[in-house]
Every structure is written in structure tokens, then in C-alpha cells.
Specification:
With about 375 residues, the chain is α+β, with helices and mostly antiparallel strands. It folds into three domains: about 90 residues, Rossmann fold; about 55 residues, 2-Layer Sandwich (Dna Ligase, domain 1); about 200 residues, ATP-grasp fold, B domain (D-amino Acid Aminotransferase, Chain A, domain 1, 2-Layer Sandwich), CATH 3.30.470. It is built from eleven helices and 21 strands. Strand 4, helix 3 and strand 5 form a beta-alpha-beta unit. Helix 1 crosses helix 9, helix 2 runs parallel beside helix 3 and helix 3 packs antiparallel against helix 4. The chain is globular and about 55 Å long. The N and C termini lie far apart (about 45 Å). The relative contact order is 0.12.
Amino acid sequence: MNKKIGLLGGGQLGRMLIQEAIDLDVEIHCLENDLDAPCAKIAHGFTKGSITDKQTVLNFGAAFDLISVEIENVSIEALYELEKLGKKVYPQPRVLELIRDKGVQKEFYTRNQIPTAEFHLITDASGLQAPMEFPFVQKMRVGGYDGKGVKIIRSQSDWDNRFTFPSVIEAMIPFEKELSVIVARNEAGEVKTFDAVECEFNSEANLVEFQFSPAAISKEIEAKAQEIAQHVISTLDMVGLLAVEFFLTKSGELLVNEIAPRPHNSGHHTIECCYTSQFAQHLRAILNLPLGDTGLIMPGAMLNIIGEKGFEGPAVYQGLQDVLAMSGVYVHLYGKSTTKPFRKMGHVTVLGREISEIKERIEYIKTTLLCQSY
């Protein structure tokens, strides 16, 4: 195809995007401030620079007809200017601007009849009384990721130690499951969804520990989750890939928690489990190619490899040979030379015929494959 894409960010999402782009003869050129980033050694071009600095992004983007992102924290002002210069920017800057602020996200849901938890927005949390009954959740409106910038407020003493940043105050949902649906849309308006995945969280790290597909939900809930995800991306009039995270309540109600306009941790299993991976689908969407078949080839689960507690320094992987000897197991290391507690260092996908069998192998891998340091 001989296409060149300028990508803001050089993390593991960009790394896996590059791996898919090679098969389509598409070049990915990255802008990233870290010379040791996961994309640094494999990108077709790598520019060191800040993705939040307007002039740096403008200078970088000028060389490409198409610009995309692998993280939301970028100079949106620069992307608006690049768009005015005739560059295609997907996802569009207006979408990134809406999604970057969790408060604006929540207002978008309300305006467009998208089900979500009850919420209040506060611009200054100092000196305020608790705005709803305990327990509830406080989320920083801008800047939080992977569980950072989120506090569970269970009591007055928790509230006394709250964030003082602009926040979303959200009712704590007694959910049955946490689900995620990845949906894609191209310029032509074609929309396709992947099957819902079910996520299990590491409560200490407050990030997804592992997820599996298909989710253990009814056909009706699966269809509803996909319908809502399609409604969200179509209402946004967005081009690209969107992850829609849900709470499934005990009464069977689906509530949108958050959305992310890029490849997502909850879609990593698609590399081996589906006919088209989320990374290939993102490329197809932003290049306005026909979207790929999202069908499941085989059930599977994805386990994050995270840095072990108490270790920080050069990464060492214990138990890697034992895990690689297992059938139906695929290891993805992100090329990060330094580990630290709870840092995402890679992931493992496990395929199998039965979810119970897959979960047994996941439990073995969790205690066998450990990322430590010298």
C-alpha cells in the first residue's frame, strides 16, 4: 500500500500496531519522548519529542497525510491545526477532546441517552461537603489512566483525603461483571464490533489482571452491549477504534463506565483469538479499508504481565521457558528494559476449547511467569 502514518506515542499499543502494519506494507512513524520506548527499535521512523507540545506535534505531523494516536494525552490544539491544513487525523481531535475529560464524557452520555451511573461534576473539591451518600467514586476529570486518578470514597475520612482536582463524583455501582466491547468505524461509515470480553481486575493495582472471551453473559446482554457500543461510535461520528467499558449490574442493566478512542488492553486477545485483531481493525478503519471479520476463532483469555511488587530495575522474566512450553499459549513482551511495581511489561494469551480449562492455565501462569529485576 506504501502508506505512511504519523503516530503520537510509542508505547506497547503502538508496537503491536506496527507489527500488524508490516503485513499491509504500511509505515508507522512515531513521536515519543522516551528513546527506550517499546516502539523505538521497530518503528519505521522514530522522532524523540513531546506529544503534548504543540509545536513539536505540528512539526512532526507536517510530514504525513494521516496522523493517529496510541494515547489520549496529546496536543489536541496541534491536531486541530493539522486537520485545518488538510491532514487526516483519526480519531478526530474533537473526539479526543471530548474523551480526555471524564466530565465531558459523562455529559455526552446524558445528552445522547447512553446509560451510565449517576454522577456529579465538581471543579474544586476543597471545602466541599460530600455530594452523595457514601460509598462513591471520585475520578480526576483529566489525566488519570490504568486506575491512577481514581479514589473509592467510603467514609468521611476518605473524603477528607480526596483529590482537590476537578473531578467526577460517581455512584458506586454494585455490578455483577465488568465488560468491554471494541467497536470500529471507517470513513465510509461501516461499523463492526468484537464480542464482549469479561474483565477481572487486580484490586491492589486497580487495573485489568486478565480478561476472557466470550464473556459469560446471555445472548440478549451481548447484543445490547454491541448495540450500545455501535451507538456510541456512530453518535461521535468517529473514525477509528473505540473501547467501550461497561458495568453489568445485578439486575441485568448495562452502564457505560468509560470509553477509549484507540486500541485497548481489553482487546489484546484478538491477535490470536479473532480473524482480525483490534490493531489490524484500527488500521483498516483509519485507512478507510473494509473492516475485517471480528468473529472468534477460539475462546481465549489475556493475562497482563505486570512488574512484581518490590522490584524496580532491569527486567528479568522468571518462568518464561515453562510458559512457552505450554500448548495454546502466546507470550507478548513489550520490550521495556526497566520494570517497576505494577508496570505493564507484556501480556499472555491462552487459547482453549473451554473457559474453565483456560482459567486453570491462567492461574498457573500468574504464579509462574514473573517480571522481576536483578
